[in-house]
Amino acid sequence: MTDKLSININIDGRIYPLTIVREEEEKYRKAAKILNDIILQYRKKYANHDSKDFLSMTAFQFVLKNLEMEEKADDSPFIEEIKKLNEELGDYLSID
């Protein structure tokens, strides 16, 4: 049975109650800290903008980074190479 935990996460001065798996608490708190740090960087750089702008730019930054990571994680060349090696191995093993 998974142990649940209720926590409050502060993002840009607003509190969000969450129920999470206890073992993931550190990950959630670290994510909130990273998010708040990035928002603070935008807030310092663009002081005359609205909080929604900071949140939007932070979300955009994370989505862009996620897309870059997905592109890097393209495993199709490896799958093709494995298929090729599998065929070669099959041909080799079928020789009498």
Q: Kindly report the average pLDDT value.
A: 89
Please tally the helical runs, counting DSSP H or I stretches of 4 or more residues: 3
Question: What count of domains describes the coordinates?
Answer: 1
Low-confidence stretches: none
User: Which structural class is indicated by helix and strand composition?
Assistant: alpha+beta
What general outline do the C-alpha atoms trace?
elongated
Distance between the termini: 54 Å
Strand segment tally: 2
Radius of gyration: 23 Å
Order of helices and strands: EEHHH
* Largest sheet descriptor: 2 strands, antiparallel
Please summarize what this structure is.
The chain has 96 residues and is α+β, with helices and mostly antiparallel strands.
Structural description of this entry:
This protein has 96 residues and is an alpha+beta fold. It has one domain. Strands 1-2 form a two-stranded antiparallel ribbon. Strand 1 and strand 2 form a beta hairpin. It starts with a strand and ends with a helix.
Features:
cell division, 2 strands, 96 residues, Cell_div_ZapA-like_sf, single chain, alpha+beta, two-stranded antiparallel sheet, cell cycle, Cell division protein ZapA
